[in-house]
Each structure stands twice: as C-alpha cells, then as structure tokens.
Write a structure and sequence with these properties.
Oligomer: single chain
Structural class: mainly alpha
Largest sheet: none
Order of helices and strands: HHHH
Number of strands: 0
Low-confidence stretches: none
C-alpha cells in the first residue's frame, strides 16, 4: 500500500458512518464493470428511488440468508 493510499484509508475510516457507507458503495460500484452499459431512464429512476429509500430507512432490508432460508422452507 502506498503512503497516499494509506492516508486516504485513514481519513476514510474517520468519516461518519453514513459517509463511510456512501464511499464504500461508490468504490464497490467502480469495480462492478469496466465498461458502462446502457440503463434505461426508467430503471435508473427506479435504482435511485430504491437507494433513497434505503438511505432514508423507509424500507426494511432482509438479509439474504433469511430470504434463502424462507425459499428453502417453501420449496422443501
């Protein structure tokens, strides 16, 4: 790790929780794909709406393990 990277990481770790989450989201998004792919305006609007609901805490997130367990019980 370079000195610059270490300094960025140190500063990032001292950000408030919400800012760290936003930064982590943006960094992960940057790894998703090298080339941009077309997303329709309707889907982009839906993505932004859902992200806003998550950020505002107006929706209940369900852990993937719980979802998969529910599916296994229903199909089992």
């Amino acid at each position: 790790m370079t000195a610059v990277t270490a300094k960025i990481v140190d500063k990032a770790l001292h950000l408030p929780r919400e800012a760290r989450a936003f930064l982590a989201e943006k960094l992960l998004e940057s790894l998703d794909c090298e080339e941009a792919f077309p997303v329709s305006p309707a889907w982009m609007e839906e993505i932004h709406r859902r992200c806003q609901e998550i950020d505002e805490g107006t929706v209940k997130l369900i852990p993937a393990e719980e979802v998969f367990d529910d599916i296994d019980r229903e199909l089992g």
